[in-house]
Amino acid sequence: MTSTTTLPGEIVPAQHPNLKLGPGLLQSISGTSDSATIVSTRAGELQHSANRSKWWIESNARRYVPAAQESVIGQISGRAGEGYRVDIGGAHNASLDGLAFEGATKRNRPNLKVNSLVYARVSLAHKDMEPELECFDAQTRKAEGFGELKGGFVVKCSLGMSRRLLDPNHFLLPLLGSRFPLECAVGMNGRIWVDTKSAQNTIIVARCIEAADPDGGGLDEADVNKLLNGIQS
Questions:
Q1: Do residues 100 and 33 share a domain?
Q2: Per-residue pLDDT tens over the stretch 155-209
Q3: Is there a single domain that holds both residue 79 and residue 141?
Q4: Whole-number Å distance between alpha carbons of 7 and 159
Q5: N or C: which end of the chain has fewer CB within 10 A?
């Protein structure tokens, strides 16, 4: 993963057969050409994945801006017809259809309560429309980990930390998993759901996420290990 500083309005050299744009980037097609131009809509660090298929702008913004295909952790805020209103930390609530779950039918679908937690995928994100969510994988139509999150605890962190935790090479979650049993779902909206079956271990996870967060302590692996040894001694 590489990065470079970019400003609003700058053209970004993002090209890939399966290009996916994240927060801070907009695809624009001019009236005189069919070719698409990728433009930055905010200042920050231009990031892309190792194979250059995913591009986004990482900034110190506190409020989550929904982007299609991103995984988020939301809280049910109310019913809306046959679906739900979901708080995902953005400027507006998202909508979640009652049929947007694996195997859901009109006669057989989840009955979520207000304040229930869901792990979902953003299926629609547009500046002039409210976000839409789905609780299944778009390719397989299977849950693939999406759906209601029962029990556990939500830890809040910076948006940048969420992206770091989704990197399989990041040290924190494997390190914590080597210390005690841990279930985890990472939302790109700055919410991390953890279930450790122990209140003490849940507190440890929260403290370690805060300590490793660039907006917090910014500790590296060695320092987090020292923190863990001190807490668990």
A1: no
A2: 999 988 998 999 889 999 999 999 999 999 999 999 999 999 899 999 999 999 9
A3: yes
A4: 19
A5: C
